[in-house]
Amino acid sequence: MKLLKYLFMSGCMLFMYSCNKTTTTDEDKGEEFTLEYEKFTLDNGLEVILHVDKSDPIVAVATVMHVGSNREKPGKTGFAHFFEHMAFNDSENVPVGANRKMVPEWGGSRNGGTWNDGTIYYEVVPKDAFEKILWIDSDRFGYMINTVTEAALEREKQVVKNEKRQRVDNAPYGYTDEIIRSNLYPADHPYNWTVIGSLPDLQAATLDDVKEFYNQYYGAANATLVIAGDIDVEETKKLVEKWFGEIPRGPEVEQMEPMPVSLETTKALSFEDNFAKLPELRMVFPTVEEFHKDQQALEVLGQLLSGSKKSHLYKSIVEDKKLAPNVSSYQSSNELAGEFVIRVRANEGVDLNEVKITLDDAFAKFETEGFTDTELQRIKAELETQLYYGVSTILNKAFQLAQDNEFGGDPAYVTKRAKLTQAVTREDVMRVYNTYIQDKNYIMTSVFPKGSSNLAVAGSEPATVWEEEVTAMNASEEVGQGEEAVYNKTPSKHDRSEPPFGETPLFKMPTVWTNELSNGMSILGIEDYELPLVAFEISIKGGQLLDTPEKAGIASFTARMLNEGTATKTAAELEEAIGLLGANINVRSSLEEITISGASLARNFEETLKLVEEMLLSPRWDEKDFEKIKQEILTSIKGREANPNAVASLSFDKLIYGKEHIFSLPTNGTEESVTGITLDDLKQFYTNLSPRLTTFHVVGAVDTDKVTSALSDLEKNWNGEEIVIPNYKAIEEATPGTLYFIDVPNSKQSVLYIGKQALSAADEDAVKLNYANEILGGGSSGMLFQTLRIEKGYTYGAYSFIPNRSEVAPFILNTSVRSNATLPSLEIVREMLLNYGPNFTEEDVALTQNKLIKQNTRAYESLGAKLNILKDISKFDKSFTYIEEEQRVLQNMDLSDFKGMVDKYIQEEEMIYIVVGDKATQFNEVKKLGKPIVELDIYGNVIK
After folding, report:
1. Whole-Å CA distances, 152 to 85, 135, 286
2. Residue 694: what pLDDT?
3. How far apart are CA 68 and CA 334, in angstroms?
């Protein structure tokens, strides 16, 4: 399958697997899957693909530019990603800042991403904004370069630098990719540097660089445009010609040929990581590029080596030697070359020499023992389900069609890829293992916590990376909007002003069916036959609310143990049984419930539920599994100490809820509480799982009769009494108006976590408060994002929100700003909170109403989103038409309603401020804010 790795963008990494226009047949099952598309090419060379899907009144637009970091030159690294940021700033016929602000206000979402080989821009909007999105997208594509100014250039430099600080410099193991690339690939290879590049290179970028890059690579003939959704094909063709037809073709961009690499010797490197709390080993072997004949066999090899509890690497590293909670191996193919990666993030204090020896032994076992046909069959079954899930949203369809067309020359290539994967044999797997892995040279990294060099693999050479020094803010870092560019508009035979909205689509709730079983379990369902899939979630009330302080984390521990086999199946056998059905099942615990979530092909739904019943009613309670899970939890507890955001969040909860409330403790517990939990404790906690506290939510290609029949055995065999859930009262330990400072030495950013107690999601004010917060912190169009990122360049993102909880939840404002902008960011946030209510306008009311009502048209497209509808109904006792009712509430709110919510719940003087950052440079700065300051350690304890 295709993996778009490390897309540096405002959103997240995308994992996409999809299908094409032609009809494909599963010869074994007799089932047919189709995904129709139409492809044509404009006179300027732009290849356009249209896909019609009228299941929701929304449209997705994706543009792939065939230029990534592999087109850069040493000294100008990170430029493809930097240009992606610049492209969103301004264009000739669209107002300044509109690309980031207007699309969310239309009820849509937009983003972009860059990887080694390409750049993607995409939007999803309600269908009434379809032509508007063509206007804004085509203007970004073909009419932005004249609008670029020095001020915009300097501001976006700061944004990208903040992104690098957040994702790389201030993150554990953030430098590992840079170390690997610079040693795996020669200095002149296009993969020698990371996608985000280096800060000195970014800082040196000029306007001439931007223009040269655009003119070279942003021609229409170097791109693919995909439009998918509720469209009319003939009308869309006319609109595409109108909006995109005049974009210049651009110079010919020479196709890059594959550039696989080889290593003359193995290189062992070590690195002391400022943030890491756990040692990590990676081994990276050079392999093959995308579309190479060996790619699928290498992908299957990765799954066979570590993708199950029966795999050799997992058994050796996790079960036998107990060196780590997990191990991963995978093939990563790009346009020019590929890598096979093995990664082990070990338990605290583990010697990576032992990890390396154990890996070598595991490889030797694989060479002699191999794998079973059943394991190979399981992988192929899982891929079938992934195939369907990969096309479960319009946006994913657009991604795959665009990517396979631009890089494979065939929008339908995914069908071939699926067939190639299904055709992989055991001989293929062993052949690629022998060709690329066995006795071959590789890059190995040992990343260890500060002061733990003894944990690195012996003989490793210290690796070096460029690290930014935290300094006081200088004049070049103070950026702003600046003057708009002066230019002559590019002539056009069309009117390129903003087109009007089409007919407004309104969200209509899907039909919800219900049932009640004799054991007290409720059922809520939505039928959806678009794909042959079923998604379900069993919600059992309780979760962390049933923990006790001395046994904090026991709900989470119990849930994890339910994944570890049954009375008749070991953990490995259970995993295999699930995989052979092409299904997934996972038990986990959250603050207020334990959930058993899963998905399957519709034809395997009954068999999947039989396994769910077995897991729920017949846990294995194996002592070895218990010890393994305990170690995994303790390792994760140690690992969260390396995450400044986690440190801030946990300290915030401790202060907001108070020590008498169970939410003041982490969901997975503390080192002390988890160490004291026994297997008997889990068995006792397990008795809290009662059908009388349970609702079964199901969405997909299944009806009420089939669901009720599939649950009949569970109805008969699962009984339990009503369980009383403790009633907690949040009593803040924090003093309102106080700033709490947590020192993480050498932080390149400061995490700001600000807020106060607010309300339960069951409160009648909850939906109104969410509406009232939208202008302040609701995504990229919110004031926080627009001010701190767009205007000031202090951060990569800034948001505010209220978690969806039955218990009283807090109002939270969260961002990570560059260290030397900590004080000005705090000052901006404080002023914004103080003035938010008084400055709220009628225009803000109208904007919120329009944005959120239209947003609903795309918010419930996926099976998971529809499951969330059912969960909201059951958890908060909402009606079957609650979304429509809440839309009416929003439409009926006036200015006084919005101001009332702000005055009641978003009061700056009642909030606490948490800053996690570098004390040496920032502590004296934050004192200037004028608030009382209390120092905390990373566990939220007051430092006396």
Report:
1. 10, 22, 39
2. 97
3. 11
pLDDT digits (tens, 9 = 90+) for 182-217: 999 999 999 999 999 988 888 898 999 989 999 999
Q: Which residues pair with 14 in a beta bridge?
A: 4
Asked if residue 696 and residue 589 are part of one domain, the reply reads yes
288 with 383, same domain? yes
DSSP 619: B
- pLDDT tens-place string over residues 859-878: 888 999 999 999 999 999 99
The CA distance from 528 to 204, in Å, is 53
pLDDT digits (tens, 9 = 90+) for 594-633: 999 999 999 999 999 999 999 999 999 999 999 999 999 9
208 and 60 part of one domain = yes
Integer Cα distance of 742 and 747 in angstroms: 11
In 3D, which of 58, 54, 62, 28 has the Cα closest to residue 530?
54
Q: Are 403 and 551 members of one domain?
A: no
Q: Could you identify the residue written with the tokens 């909670």?
A: 325
426 in any annotated domain: yes
Domain that holds residue 597: 513-717
Tell me the CATH number at 79. 3.30.830.10
**Number of domains composing the chain:** 4
pTM: 0.87
Residue 225: inside a domain: yes
Closest CA to 818 of 670, 684, 921, 694: 921
* Cβ atoms 74, 193 nearer than 8 A: yes
Rounded CA gap, 273 and 450, in Å? 6
**Sign of the C-alpha dihedral computed for residues 820, 823, 826 and 827 taken in this order:** negative
Give the per-residue pLDDT at 34: 65
Residue 202: predicted pLDDT: 86
Q: Residue 595 is which amino acid?
A: T
Is 257 part of a structural domain of the chain?
Answer: no
Task: Give the range among 171-185, 213-227, 374-388, 904-918 with minimum mean pLDDT.
Answer: 374-388
- In angstroms and rounded to an integer, the radius of gyration of the C-alpha atoms of the chain is 27
- pLDDT for the residue 26: 37
Do 293 and 369 belong together in one domain? yes
CA distance 436 to 337: 13
Tokens coding 916: 């996690």
Average pLDDT over residues 448-455: 95
DSSP line for 289-328: -TT-TTHHHHHHHHHHHHSSTTSHHHIIIIIIS---S--E
pLDDT at 151 over 70: yes
Cβ atoms of 415 and 24 closer than 8 Å: yes
Is the same domain home to 236 and 332?
no
Cα dist from 122 to 47, 113, 288, 365, 760, whole Å: 16, 9, 29, 46, 35
Phi–psi pair at 343, nearest 5 degrees: -130, 135
| pLDDT (average), residues 839-858 | 92
Q: Is 762 helix (H, G, I), strand (E, B) or coil?
A: coil
Q: What is the DSSP string of 681-698?
A: HHHHHHTT--GGGEEEEE
Does pLDDT of 22 surpass 90? no
Q: Are 366 and 402 within one domain?
A: yes
821 has a pLDDT exceeding 80: yes
DSSP state of 165: I
What CA–CA distance (Å, rounded) separates 309 from 458? 29
- Contacts of residue 828, defined as CB under 8 A and 6 or more positions apart, other chains included, come to 787, 788, 792
- Is the predicted pLDDT of residue 1 greater than 60, yes or no? no
**Residues forming a β-bridge with 515:** 523
Q: Is the pLDDT of residue 21 over 60?
A: no
Mean pLDDT of the chain: 91
Residue 480 lies in a domain: no
Residues 313 and 418 placed together within one structural domain of the fold:
yes
Of the candidates 177, 865, 845, which has an alpha carbon nearest to the alpha carbon of residue 535?
865
How far from the centroid of its chain's Cα atoms is residue 380's Cα? 25
Backbone angles phi, psi at 153, to 5 degrees: -60, -50
Whether the per-residue pLDDT at 30 is higher than 70: the answer is no
* Alpha carbons 546 and 263: distance in angstroms, whole number: 55
